[in-house]
Structure formats: structure tokens, C-alpha cells
Design goal:
alpha+beta, 7-stranded antiparallel beta sheet
Length: 513
């Protein structure tokens, strides 16, 4: 099939020679055209599940006779870790973490080995996941800046360039790239094809040659999810809800980036437009009958995708929240490995951590368990299973969402301000009895341990010097380093500073959890 490759390489033994290097010939498909080329000094590589070595009977081989040479971008395997009382969750994290390491060999994020081409959607998940498992920021920026002028065709992928740019700034605190590519990023929001109500479409005749040129494209086409069978029956309309949710998110973040780069007039424009888009989506693209987000203008069908994205991007009206949450949960994992990123973000954002953890540790066909135990993969796949995409790639980092979902949402460690000057700590570990993590930041390592015993939860934090932590917890009686902290019936917010040099440890205890 399309996903199984076989390579036979012959070499000739020579008298008196005991050491041989098997040279892998290049595959034209992934070493030409738009493919990112591997440096000549490294030579060709090929991912494989197993290798057979056939030699004449007189040659005896042992395990120590064979050496596999592995190519990766520099990666620290042991500095950053996650461990919990849930062994399957640990395995899902390790699979995703290793996937980030194994697929970094070209120095840019690519769509696995089949094509070796960067795509914005892959880069978005790869970027966040790399931030969660290693102190590495340059590949993400290099890939993003490459894709600015060598973009791919899906409408949402173009919009995700803006999301990637914001992540780069949020996690590094460095806005040089924003400033340099500011006009390109403005164009990537696709604000020039908006209707009066703020919604966009690629099928209304507004996508002119001039528009295509401004985003370095030859065509733009909506995708919703990939492969198409993973769209949960989403009806592809002229005006698609999924596309406009990404448009809203891009416009809102562009307002923030305009603000940080000193473009005041643009700041007002993008914030005002994002508010308009949000209002229009919530007034025109929510069914008055069901209260759910429909697939697009003129549609009556509601699929998982617009509803999970509305949750992830935080625009669901309070009146509709429970209906949307219940609907999303009823769908389980009715999306691709790419869509899982936004589904899990949405669930954690609405405090549905128990359900999100159930999806992370599911044993169904659409699960990371299925990749590990049923498909036998050691790197995340392009799709959940070969039955969903017969020609799937077996080394695709856009399936590695747990590498960022676990540190950033389950353990809840995210930058509140660019460059981690202010850190959010919002653990959502559900019924997991214990979990510990060490994750990188531009300011240093952040460590967190969460333990549950009966109705008590203990959080141990170690944060870098000259940072502020904001800890969000459910309601309950709380102590910080042994001293009582006032909370509220709705929940608790604790802020504390680590001023000066060196890391410090803080212990939070919560009763009646």
C-alpha cells in the first residue's frame, strides 16, 4: 500500500574489510521539488520499523555487530519530563515527545518523510509541542518564516501563520520577526476579502490575483480537516464556519501584534473587526433551534469542528455553553489527529478535563493507544489508523498534540505574558492521583508536581527567577507555604513573585478539593 515502503540495498563484501556503511539512495519524491533538502554532509536517511541483513552463511553477526545511525536536531532527552500515576498517559506523552525529536532532522518542520514539505497546520502543532518538550525556539521560527513566502493552499493554513507568529512572540518575548513580517502577517489574516459583516469566503469572487499575490499563493481552498473523511460530515459551504473561526482568531491576535509593534491605528482596526466577526458568527452561524454552531451559512447541519473551535477560541455565549459542551462530548474523537489539538484545547478551556483525559487515554480506533499497541508505531501517525487514510505517513508530528496539551493544559503551564515574565499555572489533572513535570521556558525550567490524597491536593512549584506565577485553582481552603490564602466560592487565584536570582519552590495545599 501507499504507506508501506520497502527498500532493498545491495553492497559487496570485500576481502579483509570488516566494516561497511549502508548508503541509502535518495527517493526522488522527497528530495526534489518543494521538499526541504537534507545537507550533503549528513547524507540520506530513511525511517524504518525493521531491517533484515542477508549475508552468506560464513559471516556471523551479533547484535553488537550492527550500529544504527540516527539523525535528529539537537535534543535533550532527559532534562524535561512528564510522569504520572496513569501509565498509559505517560506512554502517550513519550510517544509524542519522541515524535518531535525524530521528525526534526531537517531543521524545519515537515509533514513526515513522504514529502518533506512544511505545512502551516503541521508547523502550528509541531511548534507548540516542541515548546513543551525542549528549550528550542529556532526551528519554529525558521519554519514559520519559510512558510510566509512558501505557503500552502488551504485557507485555514494561511490564517494559522498568524497564530504561529503569535506563539513565537508569546513563548520567546522577542518581537523582531513580528516587526519584519508585519505586513505579510496582516495580509495573512485575509481581512481584504471580508464582507461588511466581517465574514470571509474564498468562493464569492473576492479572491483576486492581487489578493493571491499578497499572500504568495496561486490558489486558496477551504479544508476544515484532513483527510476529508475526518470532517464529521461537515458541509462545505460558500461561507464556512470553521474558516471564519480561524479568521476571528487571526484578527484578534493581529490586534495584539499591532499593539506590541506600535501600530496603534491597526490595533483599533483589528480589535474592532475581531469583535464584529465574533458577533456575526454568534448571530448568524448558531442554530436558533439547537443552539449549536452550524457548518456554514445556509446550512442546518452541525458537525464537531465549528463547535470545538468555538470552545477553543473562547467565543461561545454563556447561554449556549452547556449545549455546545454536551454536543462536543457526544462526538468523542470525531476528527483527525490534527483536529484533536483544538478539540482538547476546547475541552480544557471549558474545564472539561475529565473528558479530555479520557480522550488522551482512550483505547478506541481514534487514539494514541491505537498507534502504539494496534498499529505498532513508535512515532505519531498522519491519521489515527490506516482505515482512515490508507496511504498515511508513519512519522507525522501533527499527530503529537499530547506533547503540548499535557504540559500546557493538563499541567496548565503557559505564558501569561510574552517571554514567560508572568506564568499561568492552572493544573487540570482530574482524577489522576499524582503527576510531575519539568518543562522549558525562555527564562528557565519550570517544575510542577500535583498530588491528590482524599480531599486534599498538594501542588509543588519551582519557578525561574524574576518571574510571577498566577495559580488558578477550584474553590477550597488553600495554604501557600503553610500560610492561609483567601479564596472565593467560585475558585481561587494566587499570585506570587520570585524576585532576585535563583529558582524558588512554593508549596500550595488545598483542602475540600
Amino acid at each position: 500500500g501507499g504507506s508501506i515502503r520497502y527498500r532493498k540495498i545491495k553492497f559487496t563484501t570485500e576481502k579483509g574489510k570488516s566494516e561497511y556503511m549502508v548508503n541509502i539512495p535518495p527517493d526522488k519524491r522527497n528530495t526534489s521539488g518543494e521538499a526541504i533538502l537534507i545537507p550533503d554532509s549528513i547524507g540520506e536517511v530513511m525511517p524504518f520499523r525493521y531491517a533484515e541483513i542477508h549475508l552468506p552463511a560464513k559471516y556471523k553477526l551479533t547484535a553488537s555487530s550492527i550500529k544504527r545511525i540516527t539523525v535528529t536536531y539537537p535534543f535533550n532527552d532527559n532534562r524535561y519530563y512528564f510522569s504520572s500515576s496513569d501509565t498509559l498517559l505517560n506512554q502517550v506523552f513519550e510517544l509524542s515527545k519522541y515524535s518531535i525529536k525524530a521528525t526534526s532532522f531537517l531543521g524545519k518542520y515537515v509533514d513526515g518523510d513522504r514529502e518533506r514539505i512544511p505545512y502551516e497546520a503541521d508547523a502550528y502543532i509541531n511548534q507548540l509541542s516542541h515548546y513543551g518538550v525542549d528549550k528550542e525556539f529556532t526551528i519554529a521560527r525558521a519554519t514559520h518564516e519559510y512558510l510566509i513566502k512558501q505557503p500552502t493552499w488551504p485557507t485555514e493554513w494561511i490564517l494559522q501563520s498568524v497564530l504561529i507568529a503569535w506563539n513565537d512572540y508569546l513563548f520567546t518575548g522577542n518581537n523582531e520577526s513580528l516587526k519584519y513580517y508585519y505586513q505579510d502577517l496582516k495580509n495573512k489574516t485575509l481581512y481584504k476579502i471580508e464582507r461588511e459583516d466581517g465574514l470571509i469566503s474564498t468562493k464569492t469572487g473576492l479572491v483576486t490575483d492581487e489578493i493571491l499575490k499578497s499572500v504568495y499563493e496561486k490558489r486558496i481552498e477551504d479544508i476544515v480537516d484532513w483527510p476529508p473523511g475526518e470532517r464529521d460530515g461537515n458541509e462545505m459551504n460558500k461561507v464556512n464556519t470553521v474558516i471564519n473561526l480561524f479568521h476571528y482568531r487571526a484578527m484578534h491576535l493581529m490586534g495584539k501584534m499591532a499593539e506590541t509593534t506600535g501600530n496603534i491605528q491597526d490595533t483599533f482596526f483589528f480589535f474592532n473587526q475581531s469583535r464584529l466577526i465574533k458577533q456575526t458568527i454568534n448571530s448568524k452561524l448558531i442554530s436558533p433551534v439547537t443552539g449549536l454552531y452550524i457548518d456554514g451559512e445556509g446550512s442546518t447541519h452541525a458537525s464537531l469542528h465549528p463547535n470545538m473551535l468555538a470552545m477553543a477560541f473562547g467565543i461561545v455565549p454563556q447561554l449556549n455553553k452547556q449545549k455546545v459542551i454536551d454536543f462536543v462530548k457526544s462526538k468523542e474523537m470525531a476528527c483527525s489527529v490534527y483536529g484533536a489539538q483544538f478539540l482538547l484545547e476546547g475541552l480544557f478551556s471549558e474545564n472539561e478535563e475529565e473528558y479530555a483525559i479520557n480522550l488522551l487515554t482512550s483505547k478506541g480506533k481514534r487514539s494514541w493507544y491505537n498507534m502504539i499497541y494496534n498499529e505498532g508505531s513508535t512515532i505519531t501517525l498522519e491519521a489515527w489508523d490506516h482505515i482512515f487514510k490508507p496511504n498515511l505517513d508513519w512519522n507525522h508530528a501533527w499527530g503529537a498534540a499530547p506533547a503540548n496539551i499535557i504540559p500546557h493544559y493538563l499541567m496548565g503551564i503557559r505564558p501569561l505574558e510574552p517571554g514567560f515574565s508572568k506564568i499561568l499555572i492552572h493544573p487540570q489533572t482530574g482524577k489522576i492521583q499524582s503527576a510531575s513535570i519539568s518543562i522549558p521556558s525562555i527564562r528557565g525550567t519550570i517544575k510542577e508536581s500535583v498530588f491528590r490524597k482524599g480531599n486534599e491536593m498538594v501542588i509543588k512549584l519551582n519557578i525561574p527567577a524574576n518571574t510571577t506565577a498566577k495559580v488558578l485553582l477550584p474553590k477550597g481552603n488553600i495554604t501557600l507555604n503553610g500560610k492561609a490564602v483567601n479564596g472565593s466560592d467560585q475558585g481561587n487565584t494566587i499570585c506570587f513573585d520570585n524576585v532576585g536570582s535563583g529558582q524558588k519552590t512554593f508549596i500550595i495545599k488545598q483542602l475540600n478539593y
